[in-house]
Amino acid sequence: MSKTILMMASLFVCLSSYGQYGDLGTDVQPDPSEHTAPLIYYGEVFDFSGGYQVGDTAMNFTIYDKAGERINLYEELAGDKPVVMVSGSVSCNRFRDVFENNAVGPYLEVQNYISENRDDFNWIFVYGVEAHPTDGNCPSNCPPTITTDTTVLQHPDYNYRLWALQGWLDSPEHEFDYPMYADNPDNSVYNTFFQKAFGILVFNCDGTVAMQGDWALNFIPENTDALAEFKENYSMCSIDWPPAPPYLGEAESVDDQEDTVGVQELDATQISIYPNPSNGMCAIEADANATIEIRGINGQLIDTLPAGSAKRMFNTSNLANGIYFAVSNLGNTATQKLVVLH
User: Fold this and answer.
1) Which pLDDT value is given to residue 296?
2) Rounded mean pLDDT of the chain?
3) Are the beta carbons of 217 and 106 closer than 8 angstroms?
4) What three-state secondary structure class fits 187?
5) In this structure, is residue 42 part of a structural domain?
6) Same structural domain, 195 and 331
């Protein structure tokens, strides 16, 4: 309890130094035929150190449910209820068992808590990658199972993910009466926020993570008092949305630099990266006058590619698997996601 209270000491601060930028998602729902990205390396079995931690500032995302209804994180954070995000999938035993019709013990305790506090928190359930799919293509930190009681494979495309999500919602064996949204085909919400099969994140209104748990099954029973206090003291932020990335300064003037024609002619609001995902050299194309910053998921500067050419080469060989960003500050800030997958 005391550890959690310490975590909550800075609930209503302004944006942390690890601000995010951009939007994981699109203004229209992805095409059903779009292939899903390969799984990144999430760490050794039961290594749940990835994803957002307490104090991190969340990136925005847009995702959709089976009917095509969208949800946008920053819009939800601006509401009057604290946002609680939970990841899950039909092949995650712990997630499934919490919502069984005949749940018992700690599973029933978590089921009842969510039901009894449905109107006090803004619960956002995200259907991400399968924890234990029948084909054994599991996240590296979740061990493969020889047999499962599902017939769900790791999603080959977005349509399959929607099918698996709908099958979960339609299950007569479970008490799950909540909206659930499918992660995008690039697995961006799971990769960035969770890297956990049944993770839970509680957010302050400014987008910083107030509380975090590797397993919602364990987190909720151990933190009911802290959650009640958090809910009782919660207030809306009087800030502008979306938050401005604090580490991005004014772009230096490069008006007198000579433009070098690249493969594509891109303006100051565009960045192109290929191949993407990358496991070695990749080409980054942008306005020749733009300096490109390569940043990690928490905004840390990794490298700077100088202006002078529309096409610049960048070596990802020494980067760990995960999501990075190429950022240009020429005119309007332009951002493009770079996935490293060895």
Assistant:
1) 84
2) 82
3) yes
4) coil
5) yes
6) no
Q: Which tokens sit at 306?
A: 């100088």
Give the number of C-alpha atoms closer than 13 A to the C-alpha of residue 164, restricted to the C-beta side: 27
pLDDT in tens, 42-67: 889 989 888 999 988 888 899 999 99
pTM, to two decimals: 0.71
Pull the structure tokens for residue 241. Answer: 């949305």
pLDDT the model gives residue 249:
32
Residue 259 is assigned to a structural domain of this protein: no
The 8 Å CB, 24+ separation contacts for 329-333 are: 329/248, 329/249, 329/250, 329/251, 329/290, 329/291, 329/293, 330/251, 330/254, 330/268, 330/286, 330/287, 330/289, 330/290, 330/291, 331/251, 331/268, 331/269, 332/268, 332/269, 333/21, 333/245, 333/248
pLDDT, tens only, 95-130: 999 999 999 999 999 999 999 999 999 999 999 999
Domain span including residue 60: 2-233
Query: Rounded to an integer, what distance in angstroms lies between the CA atom of residue 314 and that of residue 326?
Result: 10
